[in-house]
Amino acid sequence: MIARRLALYALTAWVAITVNFLLPRMMPGNPVQTLIGKLQGQVTSQEIRAIRLSFGMGIHQGLFAQYFTYLGQLFRGNLGVSITLGAPVSAILHESVPWTVGLIGLSTLISFALGTLLGAMLGWTRGSRFDALIPTATFFQAIPYFFLGTVMLLIFGSNLHWFPVLGAYSQNVTPGWNWTFIANVIRYGELPLISIVLSSVAGWMLGMRNMMITMVGEDFVLMAVAKGLPRRKVIMHAARNAVLPSIANLSLAIGLVVSGALLVELVFNYPGVGDLLLQAVMNEDYPLIQGIFLVITLTVLAANLIADVVYLALDPRTRTEAAV
Amino acid sequence: MSALERSDESPQVDALAAPVGPAEKEAPSPFVLDVHDFSVDYGVGTQMVTAVRDVNFSLQRSKVLGVAGESGSGKSTLVYAITRLLRAPGVIRSGSAILRVALPDGHGVEEFDLVQADERTLRRVRWSHVSVVLQSALNALNPVLRIRREFDEVLKTHRASMTKTQRRERSVELLRMVGLSEDRLDRFPHELSGGQRQRVMIALALALDPDLVIMDEPTTALDVVTQREIINELNDLRSRFGFAMIFITHDLSLLVELADDIVVMYAGAIVERASALELYDAPRHPYTLGLLNSFPPLHGARQELTGIPGSPPDLAQLPAGCSFSTRCPFVMERCRRESPTLISLDDDHRQVACWLHEPGASATVPVELSQRRRAATSDSDLATAESK
């Protein structure tokens, strides 16, 4: 059963890669000329060759042969050369993906954990004064992120100087696996992280709260009370089931971690994939766009695969349903 | 879990548990449960309806009390309120429910007023002394937990001294008791049949050797054959372990097989109380008669099913006088004005709330309610019927 799913994912990945290969080659006109024109002669012949290569031109190969060359390069991690940055796309991605995954991934997990915990509590104590949390959290989610982020940056960064601003780390430290640098990165990441959590926690919270309210009305929760279990265990009976839809949503959110952080990266000048993609699109840097899309696609697939496996482990009912 | 919550062994908890009175010196009461003037409301203020009104009953040790009535008669509300499992907006307005459990050393009993009991006392009483089986075992078992975990959890909470191996052995023993094999322990609820699930629930309910088991329509969701098997098993288990049982159902003919006494509820009040056979053979309340005519008898000749005309009353707008008056085939002028109370009939300590049976009343009791419906079902009749 797991094997069947894996096969399905492999097929999807193959389709994505193939589309990624075909798209630039199906572009109408001569994008290479457009690009070279755009760069106004400030290109070396090496760059022109890179551009032509990425559009499948200047190579005297059939489409199929090109396709297999492409696959072979991909397999070796060769995503071509960026037109505007002049560096291999894989190296550029290697630079920016960790920042995005680190910041957005961590924020998503923290937001999920916090929202789920709060939601479980709100669902259990429905109608208590804790319900005031709901409009508060919804308020922060309702504000456009760009505005929220900017205001937080201005107040807590520029004016109060509680948090360092701009960039992922200070100019005074040298990147490396040492504590000084890591501590600095954490310090710089705090404000963006708080702003993301603040703007996204309401979704997790409300989802969990509503499921929790449904679960509290279920017979097995009544039975947990009838069994004389301590309150903590009764709540766990409900929460264990209520969390299942949130897990599914978490997988979707994680899949989007690599791509969905443009606003955060713009506001906080964070060197992530979102910012990179924006630059690539504005400069029509096709190899880079292609590379980023490929990474996004594969991440989404991987996240879905993980979610499937986790869901199977958490909900035994899906095991039989899928087997039937 | 703190030491305080482990109530079974710690001596100071007895003082906290608020026993109603010193019970050691008296002779042990034969009653495991005494419910007195019990009323339950749903909601408050103008929205309030009374779902259970002034109910009194007692249940003897190892006996089975059947509670019968249509949907909305308050039968489930009554037992959920007694066990303090009633959910909002249900509120116990008045009354007491005294639970008497035998002390483990065999000397005397300990009393709890379940209505007054605090959370800690309730946790101590629950499952150890009072367990519950619900109608739908599929919903009553947590869908994401293996059956093993359900047993483990109960034993861990209430029998902290048991080792893992002992818990496993006890679980297997319990499953065997209800005719299930050991391998069911590693199944999930959805992998079992309806009958198996309900057997698991019954095994779980008996895990701690309770004094009282509450069964809320445990067989309603099952097919007739499985129903019969489970009823037989319950009878068997009860004679082996001696727990008392409150069995809620709308199926009176089922109760006759299982119950010692039956109370019939209508619109939140008890309208008739009798021993099971007497109630079955000679109902005294028109509603009981209607209920009996709604189900085919398990034994005996075929007869037409007539049912009860109309539908259960809206609790917010009960008719003046007797609440059954709008549906009663024998309704009299007085029924529409005055509400009858439970009165004892001369024969056999049975009680009925109906003006027809008022002593010295001028009303003539209809023939259906004054004699036996058929020749008394003697033991030999039952035996021949079973063997067929």
What features would you describe in this structure?
The complex is a heterodimer of chains A (324) and B (388). By secondary structure, chain A is an all-alpha fold. Chain A has 2 domains: 2-75, no CATH class; 98-271, MetI-like fold (Orthogonal Bundle). Helices cover 74% and strands 0% of the residues of chain A. Chain A has 15 helices and no strands. In chain A, helix 5 (89-124) packs across helix 8. Chain A is globular, with a radius of gyration of 24 Å. Chain A starts with a helix and ends with a helix. Chain B is of the alpha/beta class and 388 residues long. Helix content of chain B is 28%, strand content 20%. Chain B has helices at residues 12-16, 75-82, 119-125, 137-140, 147-158, 164-177, 194-205, 224-241, 252-258, 276-281, 286-292, 379-387, and strands at residues 31-42, 49-60, 64-68, 90-102, 109-113, 130-133, 212-216, 244-249, 261-266, 269-275, 343-344, 351-352. Chain B has an 8-stranded mixed beta sheet, sandwiched between helices. A 4-stranded antiparallel beta sheet of chain B has the order 2-1-4-5, covered by helices on one side. In chain B, a hairpin with a 6-residue loop joins strand 1 (31-42) and strand 2. The radius of gyration of chain B is 22 Å and the shape is globular. Chain A binds chain B through residues 217-220, 222-231, 233, 237, 240-241, 244, 314-317, 320, and chain B through 1, 5, 83, 85, 87, 119, 122-128, 131-132, 134, 136, 139-146, 153-154, 157-158, 188, 190-191.
